[in-house]
Every structure is written in C-alpha cells, then in structure tokens.
C-alpha cells in the first residue's frame, strides 16, 4: 500500500523521482474504498489449473477483490467438468451489462489457426470491444495478447520455425513505469508458443509501446492506452511445474518437443526445475492491481468508460 504523507512534503517529489509510490493527505482523504471487481475470461483447456495460477498471483495484495469467471457461449470446454463450469462461470451475455475494474484474458491452444477460423472468434471480438468500455484495465495473455493486437491494431502473428519453449531473460525498456516498480533491470518469463508478433509491426503503431523484450524470445510486453491494456506474450502466471508437465505430456507424441531452455537444473529433465520468475510475477500482478486498477478505477464502478 502507498505511504501516506503530509501535503507538499518535499520528500514526496524526491520519492516519486525514485519510483516510490506515495500519497499526500488530500488524495488519501478523497479516496473511497470498495472491493475491486476482476473478471477472468479463461480460454485454457485445464481451467482449474489456470484459475489457481492466476488467483495465486492476484491474492498477493492487501486489496479486497471479487473474482468472477467468464465463459464463452460459442464454445463448450472438453477438459473441465460441466458441474464446475455451471457453478463458477457466467457467460458473456450474463456479464455484458456489468462493469469491472480489471480483466484478464488468457491464452488458448489454437495459435496455429487463423483468427477468423476460430469457432468463437466473433464472440471474442465482441468481448474485446466490450472490455474497452466496461473495464478499467485489461491484461491479455499469450494467444489472448496476439489476438488482441490483431483485433485492435491489425498486427499479424507469424509461425516460428521452432517452438519458443522455456524461460527467457527479459529487459524492461521503460523502468520508470509503475508496472515495473521494484523490478530488477532484467527478469525472467516462461514462454510456450509456436507463433510470434514482431517488433517492427508494433512500432508502426504510435498507440503501442513495447515495454519489455528479449533478444531470444522477442517482444514480451506491450502497453496501450496508458496502461488500460497490457499484451503479454508469455506466462508469468505459470506454476513451477507447468513447463515440466507440458514437456512430459508432449514428449514422444510430436517430433518438435525439445527440453525447455533455462528451466531444469543443468538442463537435465531428470532434475527439478529452477524457478526464476516467481518473484517478478508476483510483483508484476501486484503493480497492475495497485497502479493500473485500484488507483485508476472510479469508486462508482458504473462510471467506467
């Protein structure tokens, strides 16, 4: 939580210059507090696993949040019990009249398909458009990020000659941004994808800012609309064993499955994974909730626009 300091205290400007968040008394007195409403559009097949991964990160903040899960009407998941979906998920139609402080749109295992060939593409487009008028800040992950960049900005995805699979070092390109408060100069991000978006396509759009990238895995985080949208090509939310389970699941079934790089101790799959991204993942999500959701959303949620 922010430090609360007297108005016009000289330390306020000094600390802000050091990227430390402080709040003067006037702002503190004018703040009203209510639970934040976060909606998650979960497109992953193993929905319970993804739910757990995201909630683990969202819970690492003292702010109270109401979490809601959204499902598609145009697609029936095959790997999650119907009872679970009925109990915990609501359709876009049920939620479309409501507003939310934050939204997370996950990836989906359909990245090799053309967007227009995806059975639920029309519904996804409607949800993307809806998020711009009903959500304060939206985070798009992996396929969700590429789909969002394509829908809003026409940015294509390209097939990779080889799956991007492992843990890759990233560099922050604008360390002064609140989303990176507390970050080191470099951080690590899991990647697991067969396609990519390219830097030159993104740079052609002045509305977009690449805020983190890797010499190995390319563009990793793109920001738009002053932080109302974040497009993340990787998976900071992954649990320590996610890539291990994916590697063991696919090994022997396909001929393009390599050992995930920079993941196992001594790059040996017989050994345990080395977790190098968890601290920054927690910090990234906490910064998003605090600076781009909590500090920006109106107290009257109906005023979101």
Notes on the protein architecture:
The protein is an alpha/beta fold and about 300 residues long. It has a domain at about 35-160 and about 195-240 and about 280-295: Rossmann fold (3-Layer(aba) Sandwich). Helices cover about 30% and strands about 25% of the residues. It has 10 helices and 12 strands. It has helices at about 10-15, 25-30, 45-60, 80-90, 90-95, 120-135, 145-155, 200-205, 240-250, 280-295, and strands at about 5, 20-25, 35-40, 65-70, 90, 100-105, 135-140, 160-170, 185-195, 210-215, 220-225, 230. It has a 10-stranded mixed sheet with strand order 5-4-3-6-7-12-11-10-8-9. The chain has a two-stranded parallel sheet with strand order 1-2. Strand 4, helix 4 and strand 5 form a beta-alpha-beta unit. The longest helix has 17 residues, at about 280-295. It is globular and about 60 Å long. The two termini are about 25 Å apart. Belongs to the MetA family. Pathway: Amino-acid biosynthesis; L-methionine biosynthesis via de novo pathway; O-acetyl-L-homoserine from L-homoserine: step 1/1. This is Homoserine O-acetyltransferase. It is an enzyme of class 2 (transferase). Transfers an acetyl group from acetyl-CoA to L-homoserine, forming acetyl-L-homoserine.
């Amino acid at each position: 939580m922010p430090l609360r300091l007297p108005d016009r205290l000289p330390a306020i400007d000094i600390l802000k210059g050091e990227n430390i968040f402080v709040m003067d008394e006037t702002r503190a007195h004018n703040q009203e507090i209510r639970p934040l409403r976060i909606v998650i559009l979960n497109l992953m097949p193993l929905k319970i696993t993804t739910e757990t991964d995201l909630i683990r990160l969202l819970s690492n903040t003292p702010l109270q949040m109401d979490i809601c899960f959204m499902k598609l009407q145009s697609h029936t998941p095959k790997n999650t019990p119907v009872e679970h979906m009925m109990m915990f998920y609501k359709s876009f139609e049920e939620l479309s009249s409501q507003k939310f402080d934050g939204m997370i749109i996950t990836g989906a295992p359909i990245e090799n398909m053309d967007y227009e060939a995806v059975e639920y593409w029309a519904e996804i487009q409607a949800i993307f458009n809806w998020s711009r008028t009903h959500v304060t800040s939206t985070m798009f992950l992996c396929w969700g990020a590429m789909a969002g960049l394509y829908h809003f900005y026409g940015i294509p995805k390209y097939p990779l000659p080889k799956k991007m699979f492992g843990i890759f070092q990233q560099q922050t390109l604008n360390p002064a941004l609140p989303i990176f408060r507390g970050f080191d100069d470099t951080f690590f991000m899991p990647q697991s994808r067969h396609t990519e978006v390219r830097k030159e396509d993104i740079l052609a759009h002045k509305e977009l800012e690449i805020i983190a990238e890797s010499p190995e895995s390319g563009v990793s985080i793109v920001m738009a609309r002053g932080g109302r949208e974040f497009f993340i090509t990787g998976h900071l939310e992954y649990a320590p064993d996610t890539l291990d389970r994916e590697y063991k699941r696919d090994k022997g079934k396909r001929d393009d499955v390599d050992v995930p790089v920079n993941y196992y101790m001594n790059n040996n799959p017989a050994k345990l994974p080395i977790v190098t991204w968890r601290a920054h993942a927690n910090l990234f999500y906490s910064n998003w909730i605090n600076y781009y959701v909590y500090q920006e959303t109106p107290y009257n949620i109906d005023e979101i626009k």
